[in-house]
User: Fold PhoD-like phosphatase metallophosphatase domain-containing protein from Nocardiopsis metallicus.
Amino acid sequence: METDAPCDVRIRVDGVAVAAARTFTVHGHHYAVCEIEGLAPGSVLPYEVFLAEDRVWPEPDSPLPPSVLRTLAPDAPARLLYGSCHTPTGDTPEGLVRYGPDMLRATARRLAREGLGAVDGQARENLALLLIGDQVYADELQEPMRAFLRQARLGRVRGEGPGDDAPEDEVVRYDEYAELYRQAWSDPQVRWLLSTVPTLMVFDDHDIRDDWNTSAAWRRSMDDHPWWRTRMTSGLGAYWVYQHVGNLSPDARDKDPLWAVVRDHRDRGSDAGDTLDSFAWRAHEDPASYRWSHRHDIGGVRVLVADTRCGRALGEGDPHDGSRSILGPEGHDWLDQHLTGGPEHLVVASTVPILLPPSVHHLEAWNEAVCGGAWGAAARGPAEKLRQALDLEHWGAFQYSFHRLADAVLEVARGGRGPAPATVLLLSGDVHFSYLARARARKGQTTSRVTQLVSSALCNQLPPNFRRAAALSASWPFHLAGKIMTRLAGVRRSPLSWRLAERPYFGNTIGEVAFDGREAEARWYHCPQGGGEALPEIRRRVRV
Assistant:
């Protein structure tokens, strides 16, 4: 909960007061985290929010149903919604033309009509929403946010403080990030969705800046900007407050070193802003100092949400020696620890796709090899420029990481790390198109079905010229050319083979996976009619 002044926040569940918390302060902004205990498993219960004695939620005269708390039902089926890349437009006519229909708003309308699977206060399913990257765009702003920046920076004297020479159309300071989140999540339908559906989140590049941590060269170029330190501390600090704290269970939050310090500031009545800044800069400089990845068991489904941005290792040597990896050494160790058999279904949520269209994967692998010197020193500079120009920075561009994860997935799928799950699903976004890719081992058989599911964007459709380029890059001629290039560059052959089940879809979508026992069905919803009140329709459904 964010408030406009320090206060006590109370939560009343099903008419009974059950939780209260005092706000803490970060750079003049006030927040509260209320931990509600003692609820029965499988409950769906309406709740209200009070600031002191004033009820502030639900809002009066809201056309949406009451917000509810949902506790896990251990034996119930599970349903995961997922997506990435959300630009707030409110489904205005101009926004619909450029960005397409807002699938978070549309999903709120759909779930409100469905009743969220509740019958007499009991859950008949476990429901969760995974927002896997680009929840906000700090570097591609809509006019309301640009107007806020103009007003906030009005009269500021150059050189007054860190970040004062910042780009006019990008957020830099913490208060600017706070406004960016407010504008992203204050739409009434989006706000109701986040107040009702358990939600897990992780950052991608635009939460900080486009192509964040693409390479060591990219990072050096950003370090040259005097405002970059303020941007990093503000972006990571705001992410911890607005997104990451909600990923943590009460037990995990109690063990979080930053949370303990923030609570101490709260108890002393002081502002925790400087502490948050120091923490964020250390997390940027030393990724091993904090773990952003998180695990959740939802009935028979294990969900592993991986940090593929902040924890990257950006060495410039041999691409296969581990000095360059998309997770970093600690991130790989964490994923290996939790990537085991036992659950009925295993989900790895990575903001960037693990299995790209094969032609794009080959291009990225070739580019990494050339950047590493496979074609001589003279080719490294042009290859680095190509990497940044074409955003060649997914798993295919980190071959050490790709092979390590592929080997682990196959070991799980063969039962080498405990009882094999029915499915190993790789959920991703980022690329602004949606697809399904089925994978198999090049050698031997697997018990588990391995599938990449991509749903993107929630509200940021590609312009037509980019769609044509993306569709062309996934074509067979490019696939053949990519295979030849990777062999000439000495890239190791993947232990997995895969192909797209159909052509990518370029409209806005939200993905959904429904689990029931050892069965799983993937669905993609879209709004072909558009409009601010349109209900989403299933575009495709397939057993996975």
Q: What stands out?
A: The first strand starts at residue 2 and ends at 3.
